[in-house]
Amino acid sequence: MSPLTRFLRAVGGRRSLLALGSAYVLLAAAWPFVEVLGNGSFDEGVIISILVGASGAVLLYGGYRLPETEIRPKFYTTIANWCFRAVGVMVAILLFIALVAHLNDPANNFLILPALAAVAGFAAGRHDARAKTRAYTLEQRNEALQETQAELEQAVDRLEASEERYRTVTENFPNGAVMLLDEDLRHTLVAGQGFEKVDISAEDLRGERVQDVYSGDALAVFEPNYRATLDGEPTTFEVEMQGRTFEARTHPLTDDDGVYAVLVMTQDVTERKERERALAKQARQQQVVADLGQLALETDDLDELMREASRQVADVLDTDYCEVLDLDENGETFLLRQGVGWDAGLVGEATVPAVGGDSQAAYTLENDSPTVVADVEADDRFGGAGLQTDRGLRSGISTVVGPFDEPWGVLATHDADPGTFTDEDVSFVQSVANILAEAIERRQYQSELEGLVADLEESNERLEQFAYAASHDLQEPLRMISTYLQLIERRYEDELDEEGREFLEFAVDGADRMRSMVDGLLEYSRVETAADPLEPVELAAVLDDAREDLQMTIEASDATITADSLPRVEGDAHQLRQVFQNLLENAIEYSGDDPPDVHVSAERDGARWAVTVRDEGIGIDPGDQERVFDVFERAHGRDEGAGTGIGLALCQRIVERHGGEMWLDSEPGRGTAVSFTLPAVDE
């Protein structure tokens, strides 16, 4: 790069042109005056000024209008370079002429010719700059074209790969098809493998309108969904065709003018739907079994349970009939106990033979597994008269209700059409039969238990009557024995020796103890019959009454009886008073050598209160702690206490009448804690 070019690029090509033009214009304006001052001709100076000024004006105008031309700014330097080079060449020529030749007026020539040369250089430079601009533009366009060509080649490669993938996917789309439909709902493209199990092929659909291919229910599903997609709304729907279920998804294809086609992808989901239906059916069967099990626990009406079981089995298996057949005691005849589908007059009245194996019910009774019939006309296991054969029923399931060695009856369901039943269906019917069997067994057991309870209540009532009568009738002889013993003691005490008086004392003590035992037995027998209704009772008041009854005993033994805050309970105040009195008497009686120390407390336990009477007495051996609640059972000898063996048994029976229980916790020499529960009163 020449120094001139570097200078012009540093200054700017356009600025250099404008500066050169301005210099010539200024020089032209001042030249006439220079001529006059130099004794030259003014007219000649004006002519020179015009020529030089015109050249400067051309440079100024041309430089000013350069941005409006097609010449790129980077080539303005080329124009300036031409101008300055032309001026330089002309100056060099004139210097050569001035030195070699003789001009009339070298100064004027030197001024005019370079100016004209600058104009010529501008013209030449402009032409050169325009040429370079065009060459540069062509080069840029060529580069852009090359980039565009490369992008087109890449796009073509992508399109070819995409088309290959599209063809691969559509032609091998498993269990489905891909279709394109135009605005007239005409199939413009159809591919895939979803036509193998129906009578329509891809060739049948290509070029055909939806309305010309489908009809009925299928058309009623396809057309509105396709038209909704043409309105821009993607859809998903299912359609049944020729026994198959297809799931379809549509998507609108759009351009600047809106939706121009509908993309449809369909897939055969028949197997999936069948699995879903099978799972739903199994879930429903399990729910029915659970519901029937709950009903069996809640109801005591077997006929209600059988009716509901028959209805549910027929509903779940979609059969026309279901029945529960009751086998008679002799095992010879079935009674149509309950069922659905049968005439009202048959239920509870119709009977069928249970022996001989001619009917499905009889055949089921003779085998140890459920009987499944797909088509009775093709089944030679049985064929005699029966409820189902009389009505043309052709398929069904039957199973024994109860154990096979001691059956209660048969549960069966039938349909008028041939049918296929799965293992899950058979298990379902068997589960329902098991629920019926358990309910029947529970009902029989409950009936037996109710009979046993009635017998026990009757026996208990007789025993209570006997105990009452016996204890009541024994009181009179005991009173007489006690009276005569007292008379003997008063009249003949002085005549008896020491041994005789000892014998008499034993007899009086035995009579007194016998009277106490008879009184205790009388109270024990009247716990239920002579009781008051249960009502809210303040235990603190009941304990105070018991302590008042034992006031003399408490003072005589120097006993200390304390109590925590006691609650209100649901009870019989009179009987609870007896419980406290007996327990306090026992605590005082078996306190040992120390003064009795008894404490009463209560603790809430859910809906009950646990009341505890604790002493610091001699305690009870672990081996005796269970039997002390039995009548006439004692934990200690008579030398340790004067109990009758009825007190704790009476307390336990009173507590049981209140719906509670009684127990004790004791350790020999460390005292005894007797606890019992009573129902709490909700505040």
Description:
It contains 18 helices and 18 strands. The protein is α+β, with helices and mostly antiparallel strands and 683 residues long. A hairpin with a 2-residue loop joins β15 and β16. It is elongated. It has 4 domains: 3-143; 172-268, Beta-Lactamase (2-Layer Sandwich), CATH 3.30.450; 283-530, 2-Layer Sandwich (Beta-Lactamase), CATH 3.30.450.40; 532-679, 2-Layer Sandwich (Heat Shock Protein 90), CATH 3.30.565.10. Helix content is 54%, strand content 17%. The strands form 4 sheets. Strands 8-7-6-11-10-9 form a 6-stranded antiparallel beta sheet, with helices on both faces. α9 packs parallel to α13 (423-492) and α10 (302-317) packs antiparallel against α13 (423-492).
Short synopsis of the structure:
The protein is of the alpha+beta class.
